[in-house]
Amino acid sequence: MEMITKMVLERPVVIYSKSSCCMSHTVKTLLCDFGANPAVYELDEVSRGREIEQALLRLGCSPAVPAVFIGGELVGGANEVMSLHLNGSLIPIYA
């Protein structure tokens, strides 16, 4: 968990993803289209990816990816990000 805390404080927007996950791709595309420059950690490609995935599950991310952090705070996964987007609340969060 300490590793995640450190990682999410390094950049304003952080996405934990898997390269094969279509929902991760959708969330990354959405945030980039809004002009965000997120730090993206592909858990199937980084060292300690499995450990990070388990920590995300312990934080309440289910499924573990995609997991979006904005301003060091867990926003949630694809459902939460899309809900924020649809009700117009996503841009003010990271703007």
From TrEMBL:
Cellular compartment(s): Cytoplasm
Q: Does the keyword Ribonucleoprotein apply?
A: no
Give the matching Pfam families: Glutaredoxin (PF00462)
Q: Name one GO cellular component term.
A: cytoplasm
Q: Which UniProt keywords apply?
A: Cytoplasm, Redox-active center
Q: Where is the Glutaredoxin domain?
A: 13-75
Q: Which InterPro entries match?
A: GlrX-like_pln_2, Glutaredoxin, Glutaredoxin_subgr, Thioredoxin-like_sf
Principal subcellular localisation of the protein: cytoplasm
User: Which PROSITE patterns does the protein's record reference?
Assistant: GLUTAREDOXIN_2
The entry sums up its family as follows: Belongs to the glutaredoxin family. CC-type subfamily.
Question: Could you tell me what this protein is called?
Answer: Glutaredoxin domain-containing protein
Q: Which organism is it from?
A: Brassica oleracea var. oleracea
What are the leading ranks of the lineage? Eukaryota, Viridiplantae, Streptophyta, Embryophyta, Tracheophyta
